[in-house]
Amino acid sequence: MPGPYDDLVDHLVRSSPLSASEATRVVAEVVAYFAEPVQDYVRRRHTELRNRGWHNDRIFAALGTELATRRVAPPALSARQLRRLVYG
Predict the structure, then answer these.
(1) CA max distance for the chain
(2) What predicted TM-score, i.e. pTM, was given to this entire model?
(3) What Cα–Cα distance (Å) separates residue 73 from each residue in 15, 59, 64, 69?
């Protein structure tokens, strides 16, 4: 059954050393990454950056910048809104 990203998979196979199955997996992972809900993304990234030793002020500034660069960017969130997504 043809998939919605077959043209992208074909392009990756032609333009890289990836096999068709590898390209299909990469495309699926990228699509899933960008489909992650904002709340899940913020919580996941907060944990990752906290584990690197970052403090919340730096984390929330980075998250604001990162969210603005998402393929479909959500509305700008304040540090307070980001903090609420993380801590409830």
Answers:
(1) 48
(2) 0.68
(3) 28, 18, 10, 6
Q: What is the pLDDT of residues 23-46, one digit of tens each?
A: 999 999 999 988 889 999 999 999
CB atoms within 10 A of CB 73: 11
Question: What is the model's pLDDT at position 29?
Answer: 95
Query: Per-domain residue ranges for the chain?
Result: 6-35, 38-87
- 28 with 50: CB under 8 angstroms? no
Q: Which residue has the tokens 């050393």?
A: 17
The whole-number pLDDT of residue 35 equals 86
| Tokens matching residue 82 | 């980001």
Residue segments in the chain with a per-residue pLDDT below the cut of 70: 1
- First-residue to last-residue Cα distance in the chain: 42
How far apart (Å, rounded) are the C-alpha atoms in residues 35 and 28?
10
d(CA 44, CA 48): 6
